[in-house]
Design goal:
alpha/beta, Alkaline Phosphatase, subunit A, eight-stranded mixed beta sheet, 13 helices, 16 strands, globular
């Protein structure tokens, strides 16, 4: 017989505490108060890709219903009805505005803030508060972590990284205040331990050391508690719990196998858990975001696939030239093809997470129904370094507030920040303006 469970129920064992997914036996207090026991919270995420997009292979041919997807977006075909492609949006404050070169730094810095960063390579950085942190200040009180900042490429927080702009600008999209970026976690192992380990940092370290010594999973420590909980759940919740725990164990195995060398023989330190394969690194970070939303340990997240200006090659898809170098294509068809392949590779990883979200049942819908994930870049054409007509798509239905499966065209130079205000409205976050916003986007719902 199903028993009512407190929303903060966790699995415990040998000093470990592990978050649970949202179950039908739980009803968040803020939702119960509204008389909607089976309503699930809306989650918000922002995904940033560097160096622009090959727009001819990104932009759908026609406005309206998404029928045939362009080459870069083809991997999203299984979730086509859950995405919205938006064109015509701009981040005006990404342009030079008299500051000269430095478009990559401005691209990342203005992406979620809508502000023009101060041109400095010193400690006197100044930007703005990002949309994710505006949301976290309000909805963060409902979850263990107000927000989650992830990345797949390390970045410095000082020094000159782009034509006199601090590295802090090109390495961060999330900003707590004008002078304080939210440092992203790039190590899957550390991100996983932070989200699904215990509350006490010392306790977590001791448990991790014991787990590493005996090669145990976090699930081995909480197995008895999980078994007891399972007996209290209905059939659908039992299936959901099993699906969630299976996902946790899969991520653990992939993190563990990210580096398989004999450390003692090699005379090196314990690996950080960052895979050598960049595709696997991206996939792990997406899976961590997915589990964090499923377990409702946070409702706000950001992920930087790479820092803007990144010159990483992609040998796994036979693109051996650097990404940034290719983006300065000068009209060369071969370089443009390399960019297209990188863009499509990024979308393939994104599509895998969306497919997983679509399989997770939440009430009468799915996890994908209850998210809004804005995916895009702060530069359109990498060769032109333009910050208008930006590539942007929105995944998820925003708990029924977004009419997805469409390509929406907006007038040229419509502020991207109007989109962010529209998303904050759907998170019930009051915000008057962001950057150069002029209002809300119409036609989303």
């Amino acid at each position: 017989m199903t028993q009512k469970l407190p929303r903060r129920t966790v699995l415990r064992g040998l000093g470990t505490m592990m978050a649970l997914p949202l179950l039908e036996a739980m009803a968040p207090a803020e939702l119960l108060a509204a008389g909607a026991a089976k309503t699930y919270p809306t989650r918000l995420a922002f995904i940033f890709v560097p160096n622009g997009i090959h727009m001819p292979a990104w932009r759908p041919a026609n406005e309206g219903p998404l029928t045939e997807l362009p080459s870069i977006l083809e991997p999203l075909a299984p979730v086509k009805d859950e995405i919205t492609v938006l064109t015509g949006l701009a981040q005006h404050n990404g342009f030079a505005l008299g500051d000269g070169a430095g478009d990559h730094a401005r691209s990342a810095a203005s992406f979620l803030t809508g502000c023009h960063p101060k041109k400095t390579a010193g400690a006197d950085i100044k930007n703005g508060i990002s949309a994710d942190q505006v949301a976290a200040r309000v909805v963060g009180r409902h979850t263990r972590f107000p927000s989650l900042e992830l990345g797949c490429e390390r970045g410095a927080q000082n020094g000159n990284c782009d034509s006199g702009y601090s590295c802090a600008y090109s390495s961060n999209i999330s900003w707590r205040s004008e002078s304080n970026p939210m440092a992203k976690e790039v190590d899957p192992r550390l991100a996983f331990d932070r989200l699904f380990g215990g509350e006490d940092p010392q306790e977590k370290a001791e448990v991790r050391a014991k787990r590493d010594l005996y090669r145990k999973s976090i699930l081995d420590f909480v197995a008895d508690d999980a078994g007891r909980l399972n007996k209290q759940l209905g059939v659908r919740d039992q299936e959901k719990l099993d699906e969630y725990l299976t996902g946790v164990r899969e991520i653990e195995k992939r993190i563990t196998s990210a580096n398989t060398v004999d450390l003692k023989a090699a005379g090196i330190e314990r690996p950080t858990g960052i895979p050598n394969d960049f595709g696997e690194h991206i996939a792990l970070m997406y899976d961590i975001m997915f589990l964090a939303f499923q377990a409702d340990v946070t409702r706000v997240a950001t992920l930087m696939i790479a820092n803007d200006g990144s010159n990483r090659p992609y040998p796994m898809i036979n693109v051996t030239a650097g990404h940034h170098d290719l983006s300065h294509h000068g009209g060369d068809a071969a370089k443009q093809e390399g960019i297209r392949q990188i863009n499509r590779f990024h979308i393939e990883q994104f599509g895998k997470m969306l497919a997983k979200m679509k399989k997770v049942r939440e009430g009468d819908g799915t996890l994908l129904d209850h998210v809004m994930i804005a995916y895009g870049a702060g530069i359109s054409d990498g060769n032109r370094h333009n910050h208008d007509d930006l590539p942007m798509l929105l995944a998820g239905r925003g708990s029924g507030t977004i009419n997805s499966g469409r390509h929406l065209k907006y007038p040229a130079d419509t502020p991207m920040n109007n989109l962010f205000l529209s998303l904050l409205d759907r998170m019930k976050v009051p915000a008057v303006h962001i950057g150069d916003s002029t209002g809300r986007l119409n036609n989303l719902g």
